[in-house]
Amino acid sequence: MTMETTPQGPADTHSIARLYIGAKRQIVDAGYVDELVWQSDRRLSRITNTLFVREAAWVVLAAGMADRVVRAVFPEFTRAMLDFALPDLVADRIGAERRALSVFSHQGKVRAVLDIAEQVDSIGTQDLKAALNSDPESFLRALPYVGPITWKHLAKNVGVQVSKSDRHMVRLAARLGRPSVDALCSEIAAHVGDPVSVVDIVLWRWCVESARRSGQAAHWAGSAATGRGPRGVAGADVVNTDRTLDRDRLMKDGLAVSLAF
Q1: Domain limit, last residue, from 157, 184, 210
Q2: pLDDT in tens, 160-216
Q3: Domain limits at 192?
Q4: What's the whole-model pTM score?
Q5: Which residues touch 100 (CB under 8 Å, ≥6 apart)?
């Protein structure tokens, strides 16, 4: 894919940070505040074996599947797995596998969750935290069904400050003249004081909603690259009455830039 560039070159940090705040206001106004609160509440200091296995189970089940599919079965799957309570789950592995398969009929993934539970139970909470602090990528990628992309999904969900390089975010970083998603999110985080993982979810949600609702997911990126922002960054005229981006207003402001997400 060929990205459009601008004569001005990469956006400056202040413009990106200002527009990030505008994007954050838009997704809060669109009803995603709980998502941001949930992410900001993730802390490694609060991690427990049970919480880790629960989050790992979600990532394993979601691999290659839509989140909505996992969301529909996860409550019953959790009950089948004894609420991921350790060491009870490990002791009842055979029964848990049987119950879980009646809910989610992918034996490989069910056994992967149980393998992760056994591993976490064997190392204990302190060693788990130490592994996540020292080298989260190596530790997480060694788990079954956790790969080069999904390890960041799991890491974010347990409180590691990383960003996830999905296709929307990779294209946004490139459009803003940054070498990587990590570089973009870290730069914004340092400037505005939000955790990297929160910056990541703000930008990701903004891109997804923009692409889904207007087909113009580069509005925000284009405005940053030209040093201009949407009117109402301080609160007014950012989100219209039906909680979508106002495409006509953005077009008049010269913010709509062609970028296929």
Answers
A1: 157
A2: 999 988 888 999 999 999 999 999 999 999 999 999 999 999 999 999 888 877 654
A3: 13-39+163-252
A4: 0.71
A5: 77, 80, 81, 110, 113
